[in-house]
Amino acid sequence: MYSVKGACFLTRKSLIEKLGLFDEDYFAYFEETDFCHRVWLSGSKVLYEPSSEIYHLGGPNKEVSPIIQFHSYKNRIATYIKNFENKTLFIILPVHVLMCLAISVLYLVKGKVLYSFAIISAIFWNFLNINMLLSKRSFIQEKLRKIKDATLLTEIKKNVKISYCKHFLFDPRGIYDFEEI
Question: Residue 115: which residues within 8 A CB-CB, separation 6 or more?
Answer without folding.
Answer: 64, 66, 69, 104, 107
